[in-house]
Amino acid sequence: MAKHNFIGIGLVAITVIASLSWGHIKHPTISSITKTVDVTNVVSGQEVKLSFKESYSTTDPNSIWVIANKKLALPNGFAPSDLVVPNVILRLENTSEQMQVRLVIKADLEAMFAAAKKEGHSLMLSSGYRSVAYQKSLYDGYVATQGLASADRSSARPGHSEHQTGLAFDVEPSDKRCELLQCFGDTPEGIWLAKHSSEYGFIIRYGKDQEQLTGYEYEPWHLRYVGKNLASELVNTKKTLEQYFDLEPASKY
Ligand SMILES: [Zn+2]
Predict the structure, then answer these.
(1) Distance, CA 131 to ligand 1 centroid (Å)?
(2) Does the residue 183 lie in any domain?
(3) Distance CA 169, CA 222 (A)
């Protein structure tokens, strides 16, 4: 049998929006960084084309590629302007702030939940958007009960949480098995998500054995939207967002 070696060179142009002060008016200007990704090989023995071209900012909080981690905070007081409640099973009342996500991810989120359901996995939205005020109360609560070091491994300080972007959410089985516990990753629902979430544009943001890179313990329940192309690229290359964009590891503030 012929042996196939495949080398895909992906060029990703990252658009960085910078602001130029000009008198009293701020004029946005655009500069581009070209990122070259060399990917050798193959997923499951099949040649997969990994290159794609897309451009989004990694610093604009409204961009689907925005990075929020322990090194990079969101702009002070940022709140998305297009929050909606997705049509899926919700853990809380639909009036709760946490049951919202950004409109840009609603259709893909609903399609993913529906596809899981079709295969017998009943998923529930556990926690989506969190305002900076709510994140503060949550984080302060963890610090009070667990201490600072433990709180920082599992909860973001206000201004540093992906939940504040409206692009990330926690998920759990509707019967609450392994609710926000690492054993969720071994449930049929967790296994299904790890395998299929990228098809809908989501990644398991805080992977196993990635704490030195991401700053967080393995969280098989925390999904982050980045779009389908980048999601499959990250799964195929086993890279974190930080690695992919050549950012410094975000293990500490
Ligand atoms: Zn989360």
Answers:
(1) 13
(2) yes
(3) 6
Please give the distance, rounded to the nearest whole angstrom, from the Cα atom of residue 156 to the centre of ligand 1: 9
Rounded-to-integer distance, Cα 198 and Cα 223, Å = 10
Catalytic residues: 219
250 in any annotated domain: no
Is the domain of 137 the same as that of 39? no
| Residues 151 and 79 reside in one and the same domain | yes
Amino acid making up residue 94: N
Number of other residues whose CB lies within 10 A of the CB of residue 15: 17
| CA separation for the pair 204, 170 (Å, rounded) | 10
Judgement on whether residues 110 and 20 belong to the same structural domain of the protein: no
CA of 19 from ligand 1 middle (Å) equals 30
CA-based radius of gyration for the chain: 19
C-alpha 231 to ligand 1 mean position (Å): 17
With 50 as the cut, is the pLDDT of residue 13 above it?
no
Q: How far apart are CA 44 and CA 186, in angstroms?
A: 21
For residue 83, the enclosing domain spans 58-244
Residue 19 confidence (pLDDT) above 80: no
Average pLDDT over residues 215-233: 95
Q: What confidence tens digit (pLDDT) does each residue in 66-125 have?
A: 999 999 999 999 999 999 999 999 999 999 999 999 999 999 999 999 999 999 999 999
15 and 82 share a domain? Answer: no
User: Quick one: 123 and 12 in the same domain?
Assistant: no
Please tell me the predicted confidence (pLDDT) of residue 102.
Answer: 97
pLDDT in tens, 138-169: 999 999 999 999 999 889 999 999 999 999 99
Ligand 1 centroid from CA 163, angstroms = 6
Distance 189 CA to ligand 1 centre (A): 16
pTM of the entire predicted model: 0.80
